[in-house]
Amino acid sequence: xxxxxxxxxxxxxxxxxxxxxxxxxxxxxxxxxxxxxxxxxxxxxxxxxxxxxxxxxxxxxxxxxxxxxxxxxxxxxxxxxxxxxxxxxxxxxxxxxxxxxxxxxxxxxxxxxxxxxxxxxxxxxxxxxxxxxxxxxxxxxxxxxxxxxxxxxxxxxxxxxxxxxxxxxxxxxxxxxxxxxxxxxxxxxxxxxxxxxxxxxxxxxxxxxxxxxxxxxxxxxxxxxxxxxxxxxxxxxxxxxxxxxxxxxxxxxxxxxxxxxxxxxxxxxxxxxxxxxxxxxxxxxxxxxxxxxxxxxxxxxxxxxxxxxxxxxxxx
Length: 316
Description:
The protein is mainly alpha-helical and 316 residues long. The protein folds into 2 domains: 1-113, Farnesyl Diphosphate Synthase, CATH 1.10.600.10; 129-316, Farnesyl Diphosphate Synthase. The protein is 67% helix and 0% strand. The chain contains 15 helices and no strands. The chain is globular. The termini are far apart.
């Protein structure tokens, strides 16, 4: 793994303040997403790491304003942040180091503001999240929040296909990743009074909010968790086509991150109802093995998921 200083040099970041901003972004991502930070530091080309870290830090900070901190005043804090970012994009200057780091990347790479604009707009709606009545509401969330977030965070990744084709694959990946995240975060979400599984799925399996809140271990709850995991797996496997749509040097990273999602789904299916009774944690040793395997596979477009979806149909 190359030093952060050498990565900054490879990315063309020479200004002293810009180096400090990127380093602040790196520390933020390391604290917030230690698994993702470790994977990108090992598997991504050195010159792209600062740019992807900058976008990831900005997205994570935005998400945190929606999901963390005192509920009172949360909308006001987000609106202030969104205004700060929009003003920075227009003016090219900002006081916040995470925003400055992204602005520097946007200038160096000539990035458009399309995806960050869509992401901020969609994320603001997430402040008023009240659950998904049906699959259509969940898919709307993917279109307005999860997919724009993915596209924004990966702007620095060279595409081998037109943007619209890459975006179509990214949407499938975002669907599988988001459903996986909802499963691994379900303990915290339920504790905070948030139900992120579509209500129609609960109805389909005869599961109630109280069943999930109380972590009731019965066939219906187990079936709901298993079916949700299979649906996530189906999207992840379909989304593996994205490996052939990006530059070869970036495939190990994408392969590994897909593998992380599959590992989490393996754990969810093994734990069953236990996933809603205590917080989920990644398995470090398994993660290290996955990084090594992804690195060995190199530029191959094969995902080597070691899994196949057991139920190709979606939940609905």
